[in-house]
Amino acid sequence: MENPGLPPHRERVTDLDPRKDRQMSRRVVALFLFSILASIFAIVAYFVWPIDVSVEGFGTIRNNNMAIGIGLAFALLAIGTGVVLWGKNLMSGEEFVEQRHGTRGTDEVRAKVVKIFDDANKESGFGRRKLIRNTLFGAIAAWPLPAIFLFRDLAPAAEPHELLRHTMWDAGIRLVRDPDGTPIRAADVTIGSAFHVIPENLEEADHVLDAKAKAVVLLMRLNPAELNEREDRKDWSYDGIVAYSKICTHVGCPVALYEQHTHHLLCPCHQSQFDVANHAAVIFGPAARPLPQLPIEVDAEGYLVAKSDFTEPVGPSFWERER
């Protein structure tokens, strides 16, 4: 088969006009500099629009993620566009044929490798176009920097168990149904029933979902004769009605499956089981401690109210381990 040879070489506008070459070079540099600025914007956005502070509607997860995402997207887009323009317009456009040859670890092979790198450097202009090269390095170095700042969220400012020690519950706060917020009368809680409960003042929290995640409670009524209560906790229940944190002490899944005949609570994630009749003690599974109990009583109108907050941290037990 006859070798067709290479097609005729077509000169590019940057090959023919040095002024166009300089314009394209400045354009590529500008893109790399823009990428650096976009990365810096993503870092600044992380602090200007924090997730946990409401600043005229901008301090939300959605807007925080949007600002950081825009910065990272434009930073990466500018790097890609700049590299494409550099390759298509400024690097060598000469066609060539690379012949196959054996590769052996000889001095001759090493010399060929060095020559290949030398030729690549000359064709790309990598060593000659220092401004483009350095701004590319800067853009590539700046683009991952926002991720370093985002890692800060993996380490809370306070110890995790301290963040889980206090919830929206307090003395006199009514227990209301989740999600409609209907107050619960003790007389309406029948033996064997279970209610998903939140504090009445939940909407007052700065971050409702975060507060709800810590304060959710499961309310149940047993026959008082079947409750085995410690002396120091006999006044934490009311006529067989008990309230326990809904957050599993294993890894924090919602414990919401109640077996009224056995008085067992089941966590659907890893099958931990808790005995409601015995202070929600762990009877099966990987959970390390009982569910925290919420002390309750009845107010003058017959509604169930909290006597205090939980007396221990809610949620996973591993937060309580020392680092």
UniProtKB/TrEMBL annotation:
Q: Name one GO molecular function term.
A: oxidoreductase activity, acting on paired donors, with incorporation or reduction of molecular oxygen
Entries under InterPro entries matching the protein = QcrA_N, Rieske_2Fe-2S, Rieske_2Fe-2S_sf, Rieske_Fe-S_prot
Q: Which compartments does it reside in?
A: Cell membrane
Topology relative to the membrane: Multi-pass membrane protein
Query: Which key words are in the record?
Result: 2Fe-2S, Cell membrane, Disulfide bond, Electron transport, Iron, Iron-sulfur, Membrane, Metal-binding, Oxidoreductase, Respiratory chain, Transmembrane, Transmembrane helix, Transport
Q: Which GO terms describe its cellular component?
A: plasma membrane
- Similarity comment text for this entry: Belongs to the Rieske iron-sulfur protein family.
Q: Could you identify this protein by its name?
A: Cytochrome bc1 complex Rieske iron-sulfur subunit
Q: Which species is this record about?
A: Arenivirga flava
State the organism's lineage: Bacteria, Bacillati, Actinomycetota, Actinomycetes, Micrococcales
